[in-house]
Structure formats: C-alpha cells, structure tokens
Amino acid sequence: MSLSTSTKKLIQKINERSHDLDPTTQSNYKNFKVNHTELTLDVSFNSKTIDGLVKYDLTNLTNIDELILDTRALTIKSVIVNGSKVSFKLSNPVPIYGSALIIPLPTATSLKVDIEFQTTDKCTAIQFIQGDTGPYVFSQCQAIHARSLFPCFDTPGVKSPYKFIGKSPTKVTMSGRPQPSNEPNTYYFDQPIPIPSYLVSITSGNLFKAPIGPRSDVYCEKPNLKNCQWEFEKDMENYLQIAESLVFEYEWKRFDSLVLPSSFPYGGMEIPNMTQLTPTLISGDRTQTKVMAHELAHSWSGNLVTNTSWEHFWLNEGWTVYLERRIVGAIGAQEAKLAGKSDEEAEQIGEQIRHFDIIGGWNALVETCETFNPDFTKLVWNLKGQDPDDAFSRIPYEKGFFFLFQLENKVGGKKEFDHFIKYYFEKYRYQSLNTSSFVETLYEFYEPRGKKDVLDTINWDKELFVSGLPEKPYMDTTLADQVYSYGNKWVEYIKTSQNFDNIPFKEEDLDSYQGEQDMLFIEYLVEKFKNLDVPPELIKKFPSIYPTYAASKNGEILSPWNELLIMHGDYQSTDQLVKDFSNWLSVTGRMKYARPGYKVLKNGISLEFAVEQFNKHKEFYHPICRSMIEKDLGLV
Predict the structure, then answer these.
(1) pLDDT over 90 at 290, yes or no
(2) End residue of a domain, out of 249, 273, 299
(3) Angle 591-604/555-568 helices, nearest 10 degrees?
(4) Which residues are catalytic?
C-alpha cells in the first residue's frame, strides 16, 4: 500500500539515523548475493585447531573486481576462484575487526570461491576443553567471532543456505539437519533455510541424546543425560505448539538442544536445529526452562527474521523476549485450566504470570540503565568503531520488549497485536531488516486499519535514539506484591529494631512462593539493603533463617543470595561462604553469573582477592567471558 506523506517522512528520518552499511564488517557484502555455502570443519584435539574449507556460490551483483571477506587470526592456505588458484592478500589487522581477506575476481557474474584455512590459538569463536568424559570443543560466533572460525561476510545482513561437514574423532553437531554418512568420523548436515554467519556452529565431544518431545531430543555427555531429559521433557512440545499458534508453523523440522559444558558463556544460543544451553539450567526444579522458550522463540525472531546489523539487535532480542513471555503466560493459563479454572480465570492467571515476568524485566532494565554506558542504553546503537560485545546487555532484550509491549497496548491489546505478529514475520521471513523497515511495516499494517493517529502519538526519536528508560507501563503486580509485602516487613524490621535476637521470620513464610517469586524476593532484598544500615551479624543469620536458599544449586538463587550476604555480611576471604562462592564461580562460565560474581568479590571482599581468584581459573572461561571479566576488574 502507499503510505501517507507524513509517514514516509518519518521513515526517511529514522533511516537517516542509521548506517547504510554494517559498521562492524570489513567485507564488501552489498556487492554479492550468496546463493549457497558449503563449510567443512576438521577438528584436531591434539593441536587444538580446526582445519577448514569453505566453498561459496556467489553472484557478483555489481561487476566488482575483488571479493573482501572478514577474517581474524586465521591462517589462509589457498584461494581458488572458478577453478583457478589466485593470489590473495590480508590487510593489516584492525583492532576488534581483524584482517580483511582480499581476493581478485575474474570478469564473471557467477563465482565459485573455495578457501582453505586453519584456526589459530587466537580464535575467539572456539574453546577446546576437557569435558566430563573426554575432549570437547564448542563454538560461539555471536556477535562477530565467526570471522575467527572461517572467512565470511561476518554480518547478520547476509544469509545463506549451508551444507556442513564436520570431521572429528568424537560426535559432531552443527547448525543443520543431520544427514546420513557412511564415512568414519565424518558428519553431514543440511541447512536449507538461509542463516547468517553468527549462527554457524560446531560442537564435538562424547555426546548422547534422549527424547524430550516428538520433535525434540536433548544432547549432552552421558553422566548428565537423564537430568537434562527430566528438566525439559515436560514442556518442550507444549512450548513449540504455543509458539506456532502465535506466529506460524515451526519451519526447521526439529528443535533439538545441546547442554554444553559449564564454561559456555551464555544462558543459551539459538543455533538452528541444535540450540545450545548452559548446564546452569539443569537446576532440578524446572524453574529455568523459560530459557528454552526464549531460544525456541528465536527460531522466528532472529533466525528466520534477522537484524540487518548489530546496531538493530533489539529486533532479534526484543521480539524474542516478547514471544517468550507470551509462551510463559500461555503455559500458566493452560495449567490453570487443568486445575479447574474457567477460561476467563485461566486467562487472568496467565496474564498475571506474564506480568510477573515483565516486572522482573523492568527491574533489570532500570538497573542496567543506571549502571551501563548511556550510549548503549539506546534502543538503536551506533557501533562504528565499537565491539558489539561491549554493547550487549539487557537493553536490547528488555528495552526492546517494552517498546513492543507499548505497541501492543497502543493498538488495542494482545489479540489486535497478534495479527501484526503474523504479518511481520511472514513479510521478513528469510530476510534481515533494520529499525526503519520495522516502523514502515508497522504503519503499512495499521494505517489501513485506522490506527495511524495512534502510532503518531509515539515519540519515535525518544523511543529509538535516546538513552535511558522508556515510560513505565502498567504492570499487573498481583504476584509481585506478595513478594514486596513480605520484603517490606524485613525493611521495617531493620529500620525499627534495637536488637536482632528474636527474628520474626522463617522459611515457612515462603511456602506458597513459586520459583520466580523466590528469585524476586532475594533480588528485592539486594536492592533495598543497598540503602539500609544492615548489621552484619543479622546478615550472617540469613542462612539459618532460609536454609533452602543457602543450599540451593540454582544459579538464579545462588547468585543474588551470595551478593546479599557478601555485600552486607562483613565476610572475609577466609570464610567458608566466600570460599564456596569463589569455588562456584570457578566452574560457572555463564556470564550472567560470572561477571556480577567477580564484581561481588571485588566490592564485598577486595579487588586483590577478586583478581587472585580470577587468575587461578581464567583458562576455564570462554574467551568472550574471560575478556569481559578482565575489563570488569580493570585488568585491560
């Protein structure tokens, strides 16, 4: 449809605020169409390297005479173009972005480019470790680490179907559907759906699998297999069916998952057909399975429809958090119906559960906006000369979510917004887009429905390009108020008590809490105690008041619980609690826990102690995590 003149001017203005080209790639990606990519990766556990061959089928769109690909710390062995070996050159390394691989091209529209290469010990995309049962390697290419694994257009603005070939003495998983192989130690995978470079993955180790649904298996090393299966089998297929009802049919055929070793730096990574998960999700209480809902939602938002550059990362993560919370709310409504509630009551309960999660997101957003680099608390970033890893925080997830939540409310609620969800994902299926294209599509959909005036009330400049918090929306606080009411009793007790001999609180007070409420309660005390004079002798009684928290192995409990105690308990580095927490950090590579954990040691014990503990164990951490902790501790 033809948009109004005022809308066209708005779209143009928004577009002018963003870069035409992805500033985090040195490649000349706009000059080519990638028709197909074949990638062979051959793992050597002895040398801790990967030998590779990448074959590109390209169309030269502009008759340009050279191909420029991203590399970083790669050894390039040979380049063949249309059957002939060619001389190539690597530019001088540029900090963050690496060395451009420059390949001369013949005069031809159709190009076949084969590149042999090998990774080096400077590769930031892979980590070789000793798993629980033998040698293990895994990759993590987001955001711009794929260039250290293979020469590529390392931008989410380029997507390609792939054929993957993995070679290793142990089982291999990659970013595609497994194919038959009669060759020993050789594994084939097909990925017919176009994906960007950051979703390319390889993992190899002593892996086994168990079913968690009719379309889903979970993979991990054998000692953890039963626990992983139990954690996910209750909800997996249900998550899939709810997500399909929100968007459209799941297109990737299978949704399998891989629980990685504990040095994996993220909660999950949405690798197509083989989502990667942190073992910290295996908490024995199924309270963290919503991470699986998040990674599943990425099958549509991020994997099918992708941000065109990391400056527009909110399009991936904001949408994914939005869909995740819709899934979590729908699960709650289903369970309420099974418990005998009416449809109306069940819907209300589902919304309360969704809003409880939204409140947690708002709290995380507030904290991030107060403590993070203001330039990166904008919804749309400027990453020219920047490392995207430095920009990543809760902002694209939560500020992106709240932007979409605001749109849901403005256009008339969930049911009205659901029509746009399907339209948007259908329109950009297999494509990458930027923020101006999103806004254009929003008007394209709602102008004919008489809602242009509603959209025009949005301050687009503030929402997209201004640092800090958006306007706080209405949130149903029914479930959170139960936590706040109890937490405030603690605050009043500390403010008014003269001594703390007869403490009027006990663990049974929390018997009605669900897992998420337990987490919120501890986080609430962490926040409130910052502004209170809390006697250390009282804090040291907390483990006996709430022994279940003290004994918890759930990172969502363990992390804020130790922050609460160490920051206010006047503990010393020799105390057992500090030793136990330090030991946990030494085997916890998930950045969500490791980074704040070392900050707690720094601020609650001493910088020297935090550095000492980190240096003891830094080789355990994934290169991305290690680099970020070094920055947090002022070591670089």
Answers:
(1) no
(2) 299
(3) 10
(4) 295, 397
